[in-house]
Amino acid sequence: MNYKIVSYILGTALKLEAIALLIPTIIAACYGEDSWWALLITAGIAAVLGFVLGNKKFKEGRYYAREGYAATALAWIILPTVGCIPFILSGTIPNFVDALFETASGFTTTGSSVLTEIEHLGKGLIFWRSFIHWLGGMGILVFILAILPLSGGFHMHLMKAESPGPNVSKLVPKVKETAKVLYLIYAAMTVLCILTLLISGMDLFDAVCIGVGTAGTGGFSIRNSGMADYSVVSQACITVWMILFGVNFNVYYFIIRKRFKEAVCCEEARFYLIAIVLMTAAITLNVYFNNYREEGLFTAFHNSFFMVGSLITSTGFGTVDTNTWPLFSKVLMILCMTMGACAGSTGGGFKVSRIMLLLKEAKKEFLLLTHPNAVKTVKFEGKAIEHGTMRSLTNYLIIYILIFIVSIVVLSFDKINFLEAFSATLATINNIGPGFGIVGTFGNYSSLSVVSKIMLTFNMIAGRLELLPILMLFYPKTWAKHY
Amino acid sequence: MKIIILGCGKVGTVLAEQLILEGHDITVVDRNEKVLRNLCARLDIMGVTGNSAMLDTLIEAGVREADIMMAVTDSDEINMLSCLIAKKEGHCQTVARVRDPEYEKELNYLQNEMNLGLVINPDKMAAHEIIRLLNFPSALQIETFAKGQVDMIKMRLNADSPLCNVALSDLSKHITSNVLIACVERGDEVLIPSGKTVLLEGDAISFIASAREAVTFCKECKLEYAPIRNAFIVGGGKEGYYIASSLQNNHSKCDVKIVEIDEERCKFLSDAFPDVTVIHGDGTNRNLLLEEGVSGAEAFIALTGNDEENIIMSMLNKGATPKTVHNITKIDYLDPVHFVNNPAVGSVVCSKKIVADAVVRFVRALEQSSDANMEKLYTIANGRAEAAEFLVYDEPELVGIPFSKMNLKENTLVAAIIRKKEMIRPTGSDCMKSGDRVIIITSNSGLRDLRDILR
Questions:
Q1: Which of B15, B44, B54 is the best substitution to test chain A (most A C-beta atoms within 10 A)?
Q2: Closest CA to B428 of B406, B400, B409
Q3: Most CB atoms within 10 A, among A88, A219, A435, B341?
């Protein structure tokens, strides 16, 4: 382990967080709220820590994959820890575990909240809560890659550790350029999203907060009533943008470069869109006959579409209380939550491409049963999938299920029912936000015990980094100085 | 610049390594996914798996936007075909590796008709390098500048050399010839010398001199200079072929002996070169070599396809045959850094390094094609220093100003001015004129324009 490069990257990430903290500081000061000093002090703390860690001059030593994974994992632990200080200092969330849960939920774009009264926070802290969705959505280290002059193939490991999906590929030959392209697309789409929300009639502050929250597929609402207060047009805009941010960003890159054929041929995006259509249709019919007979088919469709878009992209905004929906719809929503968005998007979840690969591999197994000597390669996006990818995918599935089981066992000590424990675990590990029951769309996580909250915080960070980088921190050989 | 490299064998790899240092955007294409993945994990480049002669693969690699495409797969035909496709489909310059001697004669036709920017033949380039070394025994490395008027020669100082413990400012007291010491390698260090630098035993010095002066200098320094009378080559591959044909053409007196393990190849060689003695046998068999008179050979050239064999043969031979003036070892796969300047091995020729030099030069020239005044570029001391030749244009910052008044960068040396076929060793009062050729030595990398020498 080359500690110097790890500490240098952590330092840079903290410096970046210090700069990011200045934006809500200014907003809080503009609205004349007291929380500005809490934000400013935190920015100072982040800057000092950043300079202490980042100023060790590191020689161009040797560093490999393990340093990249460790740096990413540590950064994702340190950033929420520092980022939660303003909530504690301002007294809005005095408990450290609660504040950490809230901030980790922000950075990992989960959107699970422990707050019962959101509007108490004040505009500055509300903005900070939503803004970290945006930072965490595309990834902080990816941003660092876009600006930091590092050389060597090493940064690809940083990018791999932070970007979601089984197969992270570059868009252009250089990592730095790839990171820049991704952030440019991301920023441009965010601005467009905010503009459409403004046009649909939202006021500026709400549009910006919801816009950055949608872009990162986060899901913190900024009002106690969630999204229910906004007009149907605004809600429809949010739905479309959520779905767009859940598409693999490679598709947008192809569109920009006028490579339409490749963009249309993206198997993953097609599967994702078809899944959204089918799920929406099924849930619409189900809730129409059970809940929305009087309001009409359109309301049923609108709410179903919003919830499918919100859950499949792992955003987690809510317009209606889904606890009253029939079981069939809930099961379909759980399926949406499990699958998640496309790899290479800002969405979370198990990822469409993983599901597709597993289905294809299962289909291949049937072929091998009928023709034991058949040779068959699994193809995805027109390319043969090699054995190593499939192997790490099945291992990922096993680890995913293991963490899931551990989490449900830990949560079972709390005073909640099985659906709540299951959906809370699913909602945090897949970075979605709301589950069902007391943690549903209009509920929150405040009534859970401290142990449960710590477990769910771990789930969120592990889920955001696709499990392995975080688990690597617990593997003793990672820390060996000489290997 | 956006560069596509087809094939990531040893040449493709070294090209990617060198060009990434120059800051280009590189995409590598290869059929073998495993090799590609390893390379992409090590360097900041993009990999595309596929057949490099297929349009689909090339488009995926971005041939339509690329500036240069280099085809260096192991097949000449695929390389040429890829370049043809790239020319039709994109607007890039193309570089092709064509190494089969059969195509050698048609190279001009191919280059013109297919509009290739550069044809590289690593074996031929290595053979030329070896021939240059043979013409100048006891040199570790020779580069030529100004169309062959000026040589830069690297040699090692022995204990009995009169140059040992001499400061460069006192050099003229010891020798009369007009040479300039351009670069001194001491251990792992590379020095761009100043007047105060003192030469020590064991230093590898690179000096710049006209061909005539170089001979006198070698005599004065008690370095041997005599054309070889016979050469002993182990390995009759493509390099061996080119060397034999060159030695036959130019040195009618030179007696060439080739040991080759493959019988068919032996027949082919003896067919091609009636005057060369071709011996069918294993070059690592010491008895066979002794029987064939290796102890009397003035030049011993190890050219088999196996680096380890070449190194071992050279080391054995170096110790056992005092008559051998020149011991040349070809290294293909291993990193030559560990063997260059190693007295136990002798001179090392590394074809992939020669190719990389040529390609980097080509790319740099394209990059500043608006005022392309760089004529040649060599990396010396394994890339830790560079020697570049420039044609001087009318630039007010440079022309007519005495060097003593110029604010040159550190570790940069104007080593020679070639004016009307005369080499001038620059002093503080000299100045450049339009139309001159100048040779710049620097240990700062990235020299692209003559103006880069100024602070």
A1: B44
A2: B406
A3: A219
Residues in contact with A415: Cβ distance below 8 Å, sequence separation at least 6, in sequence order: none
Q: Indicate the residue among B120, B151, B172 that finishes a domain.
A: B120
More confident residue, A254 or B161: A254
Under the banding of pLDDT at 50, 70 and 90, the label for residue B70 is very high
The answer, for A173 touching chain B at a CB cutoff of 8 Å, is: yes
Contact A175 B44 (CB under 8 A): yes
The whole-model pTM stands at: 0.78
Nearest of A191, A241, A460 to residue A349 by alpha carbon:
A460
Q: Is B135 in the same domain as B60?
A: no
pLDDT (average), residues B317-323: 73
- B367 to chain A, minimum CA–CA distance in Å? 18
Beta bridge partners of B300: B232, B327
Which of B33, B46, B49 lies nearest to residue A173, judging by beta carbons?
B46
In a domain? residue B114:
yes
Helices (H) and strands (E) in chain A, counts: 21, 2
Using the CB atoms, write b or e for A457-466: b if 16+ within 10 Å.
Answer: bbbbbbbbbb
Q: Residue B430 domain-assigned?
A: yes
Q: What is the CATH number of the domain that holds B184?
A: 3.30.70.1450
Task: Answer yes or no: do B25 and A383 touch at CB < 8 A.
Answer: no
Residue B81 shares a structural domain with residue B109: yes
Locus of tokens 């080391």: B315
User: What CA–CA distance (Å, rounded) separates B369 from B371?
Assistant: 5
Task: Please indicate, yes or no, whether residues B372 and B392 belong to a single structural domain of this protein.
Answer: yes
**Residue B116 and residue B26 in one domain:** yes
Nearest to A153 among B2, B44, B49 (CB): B44
CA dist B230 and B256 (Å) reads 6
Query: Nearest-CA residue of chain B relative to A149?
Result: B23
Residue B141 and residue B114 share a domain: no
Identify whether residues B98 and B174 lie together within a single domain.
no
pLDDT confidence of B383, banded at 50, 70, 90?
low
User: Are residues B28 and B94 part of one domain?
Assistant: yes
Judged by CB atoms closer than 8 Å, whether chains meet at B25 and A173 is answered as yes
The total of structural domains in chain B comes to 4
Q: Residue B370: is its pLDDT beyond 60? A: no
Q: Per 3-state DSSP, what percentage of chain A is helix, strand, and coil (rounded to 5)?
A: 65, 0, 35
The answer to whether the beta carbons of residues A323 and A406 sit under 8 Å apart is: no
Residue B420's CB is within 10 A of a number of other CB atoms, namely 8
Q: To the nearest whole angstrom, how far is the Cα of A456 from the nearest Cα of chain B? A: 34
Q: Which domain-ending residue is among B120, B139, B156?
A: B120
Q: Is residue B334 part of a domain?
A: no
- Cβ of A173 within 8 Å of Cβ of B33? The answer is no
Contact A174 B40 (CB under 8 A): no
- Alpha-carbon gap, residue B177 to B238, rounded angstroms: 39
CB atoms near residue A119 (< 10 Å) = 12
Q: Which residues of A touch B27 (CB under 8 A)?
A: 173
* Mean pLDDT for chain A overall: 88
State whether residue A152 sits within 8 Å of chain B by CB. Answer: yes
CA dist B82 to B59, B73, B78, Å?
11, 10, 6
Rounded to a whole number of angstroms, the distance from the CA of B50 to the nearest CA of chain A is: 10
In this predicted structure, the answer to whether residue A189 has a pLDDT above a threshold of 90 is: yes
Residues B41 and B100 in one domain: yes
Give domain status of residue B439, yes or no.
yes
By residue range, what is the domain housing residue B378?
359-453
ipTM of the complex: 0.72
Q: 3-class secondary structure for B97-114? A: ECCCHHHHCCHHHHHHHC
From the number of C-beta atoms within 10 Å of its C-beta (0-12, 13-18, 19+), residue B130 rates as: buried
**Among positive and negative, which fits the CA dihedral A275, A278, A281, A285?**
negative
